[in-house]
Amino acid sequence: MLAATIARRNATEMIRTQSIARSLSSKATRVGGPIGSDGRHEIWREGIYDHDNEPKVKRRDGTYQPIEKLRGFINYQRNKEPYRDPAKRVLDWGELNPVEGIDDEKHTSIERKVQAARCMDCGTPFCQTHTGCPVNNLIPEWNNLVYNGQWSDAIQRLHKTNNFPEFTGRVCPAPCEGACVAGLVDAPVTIKDIEYSIVDNAWNEGLITPRIPKERTGMTVAVVGSGPSGLAAADQLNQMGHKVTVFERADRIGGLLMYGIPNMKLEKETVDRRVNLLREEGIEFVTNANIGDNVDVNDLRVNFDALSLCLGATKPRDLPVPGRDLNGVHFAMEFLTENQKKLLLTKEGRLESNWDKSKYITAAGKNVIVIGGGDTGTDCIGTSMRHRCKSVTNFELMPRPPAERAPDNPWPQWPRVYGIDYGHAEVRAVFGKDPREYAVMTKEFIGDEHGNVKALITQDVDISSGRPTAIEGSEREWPCDLAVLSMGFVSPEDYIAKELDLDLDQRSNIHAVYGDYRTSLEGVFAAGDCRRGQSLVVWAIHEGRGVADAVDTYLKEKRRDELSAGKPTSVFANLSSISASV
């Protein structure tokens, strides 16, 4: 009886809160809203001598009051920090995010506090559960610390669950915001902005310093792959006291963080800064080491106590239609990787990558068509815009998403709704229209007499039956000088798995049970996209942390067994003998 009464009371309070929020939102709209012409909540001070004190902030009801958190989600409006002006940022390769002291769009400390104040005392924070943040970030805790100005404590709480918040704060689509409880009654908290602010403040204030492990276990681990899962695994294992060596087949550390995500989303100095920190903490990195090619994977098994495969899912989904082999039809990563390598030219004119001019793909002056959406498709659009393309069009197989959640997409699921990403905004700013064409599929590429693509044929798609079906007679021809295939990735490349004779799952990923991460071979583990399939950077970090725990448990068991058998425990191998043959 008591439980039923409490449930009814809670339901009544939720309905009342929703009504208040909607009423205030409506009133704020009528009075002009709390956001001023500068894109921030309006502030008011008592007089010219009041600048040493925190100003009063305009609320949705039109009054100016001191900032408070108890009813912050009702009093204040969600105000996401905007990216730089799209018409200006397409002229450079700088990050989308505004820079303190340079860009007017950058939020002030007052606005950051106001946004942190919107985090409600919701009791059950879905933002940090499996429906929200994969690494279970302690979001309400560090939101409250930011509100109270305790930035040093905030970065400690953030690092408690997330090894690389400067990466997720820039590139994560923020599923946590889709699961935010405030989103039930109004707009969600700007969690991603706050995370970004915490970690950038920490770097600027010197709060992030090397953590040298005080003790070493004498056990060694090889991590293959230096993407987010590999780096997270290496970081965790190193802090546990194990000696970790990371092998990367590219010429620079970072995996997709370095060459897969373009500079305007994640500047490479940001990646290098974290990698250099990990190096100072004792992790060894070996580049140009293509395991299974110029480095024998069995050498790793012999010289290390455990092997963790964090290979990513790098085998792209192809489009087997007539004309696919024409010049000018490329996979997204061919386009993005070579572009990023070219950008790594220093101010002194020294190229800091193995850029191959013959592989470089330019969109300059071309009609570009990007086939496939998602983050990678948007990155291809943004890159084409900075190349000064003639036009850019983006094909999506599915229909345009609804403006609001559909009935089969309830909170706290990720909202599958229509949105405008950075690349779309740039096309709108330059060409005056959105680049996306929905519910179309490519039927054929058309070439010229020199074997170059010059156009493609599409058909409209009907999905009423539950699967895409081409509509006869709906063919259209589109001019196209460069076609970029951005349709996702199907699996990891299989040559390492074949050499080790590892079991694969039905999707050709390396088979390793979630939570255990052990493959079918003793001492070999797998994590990240090569185990779970292509996913988000934050999921890769989660997997890296998980496999580190599994490897640590295995090494403890191995050491205990060696001690009980009277065998000498493992010591650090002469790692200089395990170098790439280049």
Automatic annotation (TrEMBL):
Gene Ontology molecular function: oxidoreductase activity
Gene3D superfamilies: Alpha-helical ferredoxin (1.10.1060.10), FAD/NAD(P)-binding domain (3.50.50.60), NAD(P)-binding Rossmann-like Domain (3.40.50.720)
Alphabetical keyword list: Amino-acid biosynthesis, Glutamate biosynthesis, Oxidoreductase
The keyword Oxidoreductase is annotated on this UniProt entry: yes
Ranges of residues in domain FAD/NAD(P)-binding: 220-401, 469-544
Pathway: Amino-acid biosynthesis
GO biological process, one term: glutamate biosynthetic process
Pfam families named among the record's database cross-references: Fer4_20 (PF14691), Pyr_redox_2 (PF07992)
Residue ranges constituting the Dihydroprymidine dehydrogenase domain according to the UniProt record: 110-206
NCBIfam families: GOGAT_sm_gam
Protein name: Glutamate synthase
Classification of source organism: Eukaryota, Sar, Stramenopiles, Ochrophyta, Bacillariophyta
